[in-house]
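User: Structure please.
Assistant: Input sequence and predicted structure:
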Amino acid sequence: MRVDLFDFDLPAERIALRPASPRDSARMLVVDQDGMADRIIRDLPDILRPDDLLVFNDTRVIPAQLEGRRGEARIGATLHKREGPRAWRAFVRNAKRVRDGDRIEFGAGVTALAASRGDDGSILLEFDGDEPVELLLERAGRMPLPPYIAGKRAADERDADDYQTMFAAEPGAVAAPTAALHFTPDLMAALDARGIGHVTLTLHVGAGTFLPVKAEDTDDHRMHAEYGRIDAATADRLNAVRRAGGRVIAVGTTSLRLIESAAGEDGIIRPFDGDTAIFITPGYRFRGIDGLMTNFHLPKSTLFMLVSALMGRERMQAAYAHAIADGYRFYSYGDGSLLLP
């Protein structure tokens, strides 16, 4: 499909620079077969049904942005995918000043070898020393805010908490699964009391999630792979809920993409441990989920294509037009939507 079919105009003032406080006070646009309704996140227990199951991504964002030097050249690196115990694939600013075999100094005693360059222009960084890379990043790295926020303000101490979900447990993401940022312990208690369950899976979100689609046709776009894991107990729970007539509601496009990667043509979700580069566009037949909670996405992005595949492109264009006109806040720190096809 033509990528420009997924374009829309978004005023800059609609981009949220801080999350709602408290988190579950954010607005939520509900889109279903009956139309659209303006609600708030903490209404969720009244909207979902008992025996529905929410699926959260328990990845934890690491301080994946580094600033360093190679000689006199200033180098910026955003890690996006782990390739080994001490090796990370990174998108590098000023990459033309880095050659294979160069050593980059990131400060605080953290150095890395530029080992090789990928077809996508990324560079494989091999970190020196014996300390776990996570400890090195805690010393030298900073929280990797999305470019549409980082271009307007610097990351600060608040972001260390604001940009982690309450489910964050497995370090490895360089972007938050932002739909889950809206959830609080009080909201989870209300959902539990209503009989709405939840499970977690892990998908380490990569920096590729922020990359624009440069191709003119979706067939020519290449997705970056991300590592994900669904264990056998979680897969069994997802299948049991659907067999009993409940709905599996993915919280975030990351949870959805991993479930769909693990689901077979028969609709059975199986354990999964590996990379996924699934790219969902209109025409895709969903096999493992029955609904999606997600924030509002970039024009012409793979994620707007995904929600258009779930709900229909014209319906999502109308929903986004309503959200823009009605003052909804967009992107990672913005408001949410509940999409029930």
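The chain has nine helices and 17 strands.
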